[in-house]
Amino acid sequence: MRVAVVGGGINGLCTAWALVRGGHEAVVLDAAPIPNTEGTSYDEHRLTRIPYGSQAGYTRMMPGSFAAWDMLWRDLGAVHYARTGCLALCTSEGDWTGRSAETLDRFGILWERLESGALADRFPMLQTGDARFGLYMAEGGVLFADRIVDALTAWLAAHGVELRGGTRIAELRPDVPAAVTETGEQIRADAMVIAAGAWAEQLFPGLQGHCTTLRQVVAYVEPPPALAAAWQSAPVMLDLGGPRGMYLAPPVRGRGMKIGCGALNRPCGLAENAAAQPEDGLALLGVYRGRLARWEEFRVRRLRMCRYANQEAQRFVLRRSGAAWALTGCSGHGFKFGPLMGLGLAAVASGGIADDAAARWAAGDLPDMQVPGLDMPHAAAPLAAE
């Protein structure tokens, strides 16, 4: 069957990849170029890990997500991923890290508890005196987002997928199904998948009111020379005990060191001029004042802004109208599940999964659902790195 995929970010590209693997034809439509180097999915890196707070469903889906990434690496012929391990800090009872530990324990997933002395010894580049404990796992690391998007785009083109960047959609007609462009062209298919991130709600009325578009700014920083080697061998870090949603990516394999903080995100209109400003970098670095050793020696080198669709409970939202299925609510975890979500979207569009089951699975309420085409199990150590 022929499926029109609206959206050329990670979820749209992975859906087209999964459709090709399943023997289907795909056309990818996006208002921006494909790949879009200014898009939300295009950056030096994204974090991935198993801990997920009290979201037990997504915790249980992570092994399948790693397995789906392994499938993609095999198809691309390269691994755009560094397995660094993952560290989170518990600084108050019942915080995100504490809830993650309880969830992991419930499912018998092993993790290492680091008390204050061990934290200070293993991570001298951090200030950890306020930490109750550290949650460390060897699994997890950095996905090189821009390289993944570039490689997926090339793979799809080589496998006959029509990539129609610069195609602005004026109207979707799910019952036809067809996408009508601003020039009046009708692009017909047997089914449609809308994976347009924060723009999905604008294209698909059934999603209205489910999500809020947030402006997120991340800062690339330069650590002190004396700590450069320690940071290059550091794990990805999250829930670092300050404002909600602190996270960082270490400067592995020539990539920059990135810091972010969800508490600084704010609602943002799609047409708003929301470019990152110098004060955004200062605010981000200020959040880390009590966490980074030799904080005063860090320098902000550049900033990057993106818009993403945030669902209140931080769950994916999948809805159907006619022969069209729309996904939104990535809530910052779209990349973690990219290939797995692509397999699921391809399956529901081609009739391999019932609508209700797919919607519950995407929301994390049916984590053990068998996804057609998923090659399990995941090996803890992926293929040889690039």
Q: Would you kindly provide a written description of the structure presented here, covering whatever features stand out?
A:
By secondary structure, this protein is α+β, with helices and mostly antiparallel strands. The chain has one domain (2-362): FAD/NAD(P)-binding domain (3-Layer(bba) Sandwich), CATH 3.50.50. The chain is built from 10 helices and 21 strands. Strands 5, 6, 7, 14, 15, 16, 17, 18 and 19 form a 9-stranded mixed β-sheet that branches. The protein has a 6-stranded mixed β-sheet with strand order 9-2-1-13-21-20. The protein has a 3-stranded antiparallel β-sheet with strand order 3-8-4, with no helix packed on it. It is globular.
Features:
21 strands; 26% strand; alpha+beta; six-stranded mixed beta sheet; FAD/NAD(P)-binding domain; single chain; 386 residues; globular; 27% helix
Provide the CATH superfamily. FAD/NAD(P)-binding domain
Q: How many helical elements?
A: 10
Give the CATH level 1 class.
Answer: Alpha Beta
Helix content: 25-40%
Beta-strand fraction estimate: 25-35%
> What quaternary form is this?
single chain
Structural class, from helix and strand content? alpha+beta
- Domain module tally: 1
CATH architecture: 3-Layer(bba) Sandwich
Rough outline = globular
CATH fold annotation: FAD/NAD(P)-binding domain
Termini distance?
A: 34 Å
> Could you give the count of β-strands?
21
Largest sheet report: 9 strands, mixed
Show unreliable segments: 380-386
